[in-house]
Design goal:
With 235 residues, this protein is α+β, with helices and mostly antiparallel strands. The protein contains 5 helices and 7 strands, in the order H-E-E-E-E-H-E-H-E-E-H-H. Helix 1 packs across helix 4. The radius of gyration is 22 Å and the shape is globular.
């Protein structure tokens, strides 16, 4: 690397070094995330087919379907829920206040603190069936994977503590299946609750006309509720 008269790197040197290290690392991580997301799709298709074959003889009304929605998205319909998996196309640096920066794993190499991101959203399937555009979905999990394939998951309930060992966890096919099954279990246990009476005891003429046309009032699993079990328990 060239030095100036003060024996320090020039701006050009610094830029080239950042391109060589950070920019190249982000490209490698982006392609790793794409490959892992493609494998997650395969796992999701496999799990959906297995569950559907097992439940169909029991009750044909209960369905499990996988649907590919392009390179960065797919969905699982499980009974009355649609869970959408979306891979973000950008790379993110872990917030500096996160406790993981205190670990030796990140302090030894700060580039390990950059992540590809897969977001997981839960919706009611009727929201799409009846085109209820005002219905609410929930971000229930975020899967973070770094340049070495190590990962952790932020999420609700069990999703927030089962997969939080970044230094000791590598995201392979078996772990993808574990995470997917944990997400399905959470979704099936995440019930639609009746909203408080006083919150829905008035309706406008416009809203009533919308309901008559098949567009119901805004609906979400926890609309109007605040429960301790559904609080900010992400890690």
């Amino acid at each position: 690397m060239k030095k100036n008269k003060a024996n320090t790197p020039t701006p050009r040197d610094i830029i080239l070094e950042m391109l060589r290290t950070k920019a190249c690392m982000k490209q490698d991580l982006y392609h790793r995330t794409i490959a892992l997301f493609a494998e997650l799709k395969d796992v999701a298709r496999e799990v959906a087919d297995d569950l559907e074959q097992a439940i169909m003889p029991v009750d044909k009304r209960v369905t499990v379907h996988y649907r590919d929605k392009g390179e960065t998205s797919f969905e699982l319909k499980v009974a009355g829920d649609v869970t959408i998996f979306h891979m973000h196309t950008n790379i993110f640096r872990l917030d500096q206040s996160h406790n993981l920066w205190k670990s030796s794993y990140l302090s030894e190499d700060e580039m390990r603190g950059y992540f590809g991101l897969i977001n997981v959203y839960n919706f009611l399937s009727d929201s799409f069936k009846y085109n209820r555009e005002r219905d609410i979905g929930y971000l229930i999990a975020r899967i973070h994977v770094n340049k070495e394939g190590h990962f952790y998951v932020q999420g609700k309930r069990q999703l927030g503590f089962l997969y939080n060992d970044l230094p000791g966890s590598v995201l392979d096919r078996d772990r993808l299946k574990d995470i997917l099954q944990s997400i399905i279990m959470y979704v099936l246990d995440f019930d639609l609750l009746t909203p408080p009476y006083d919150q829905v005891n008035q309706v406008t003429v416009s809203e009533m006309n919308e309901m008559n046309m098949g567009v119901a009032l805004s609906t979400g699993k926890r609309l109007g509720f605040r429960f301790q079990s559904d609080g900010p328990d992400v890690t």
